[in-house]
Amino acid sequence: MFEQYKLPYAYDALEPTIDALTMETHHSKHHATYTATFNTFAEKAGVVGQPVEEVLANLDKIQDEAVRKGLRNNGGGYYNHNLYFSIMSPDGGGEPTGLLKEKMDAAFGNFDSFKEQITALATGQFGSGWAWMSVTPAGELVLSNSGNQDNPISLGTGNKPIFALDVWEHAYYLKFKNLRGEYIKEFFKVVDWKKVEELYKAAVN
Ligand code: MN3
Fold it and tell me: Where do the domains of the chain lie, and which CATH numbers do they carry?
């Protein structure tokens, strides 16, 4: 059984940046459904017990097309939201520090430049999808975007995501309506950079 990520904060804890109804719907409806459906397909594929990363990295080994598609979409939805919810915090915001700051400045110039680049990827993602910061096998940071519930693992890049920005409309529509750019600008107020740094360190170990 793949367990849904349990939020370490209340649904209203990210107010006013992310409103309580959006958080509750996102976690208790959307993510709960991805998790349940992923478990159904994981059983069909016989991959229960494997880490989700391994399942997503080995989709091409699944023969049955419907099962492969089910794992890609729902395993992706499961993994992506686990990461997204875990890098937000009521104590978030500000800028990266320590090793993460060093690495991000080396890769993107400075924090403002990082924000510009990831914002361009997130606003430029046509339709539903995600923007990512990931760690390459060489330990370098790279940015990307992807459609639907794809991610750098399921796309076979070999990179490990450490930062996920959900730009499906369900992530912002109740509060921000069609203004994806406004949501992205606000999102940075709740990013837990300490958590992202932890994920960076785990990814390079
Ligand atoms: Mn979502």
Answer: 20-86 (1.10.287.990), 98-204 (3.55.40.20)
